[in-house]
Amino acid sequence: MIIDHIGFSVSNYENSKAFYTQALAPLGISLIMEVMGWGGFGKEGKPEFWIGPHETVQHPMHVAFLADSRELVDQFYQAAIKAGGKDNGEPGIREIYHPNYYGAFVLDPDGHNIEAVCHQAV
Q1: pTM over 0.85
Q2: What domains, with CATH codes, occur in the chain?
Q3: In terms of Cα–Cα distance, which of 117, 109, 114, 122 is closest to 12?
């Protein structure tokens, strides 16, 4: 990763925390810590993705999470939809990016475009 961490504001922290906790679980990403009302999600104890309350919510943000397999992209999509996300692109190949780009897109509770992507061939 070329960025150490990223964060953006959400309109309802508890609602968004519940969404991301469920949606990111298939990717092995969990809530690592909460500091000053913000939650940091990540792997192996390092929070890299932060959400928190602020009077201004940036619109729209796009965040793509790396998945180790296409199956995990599918699981992310299902978990995110069950968590209340809105479909913004079912799992599938996106050849416009490259022949093995397998991604799925879901809008979070604030309308941010959240993606899981696998770059590996089947």
Answers
A1: yes
A2: 6-118 (3.10.180.10)
A3: 109
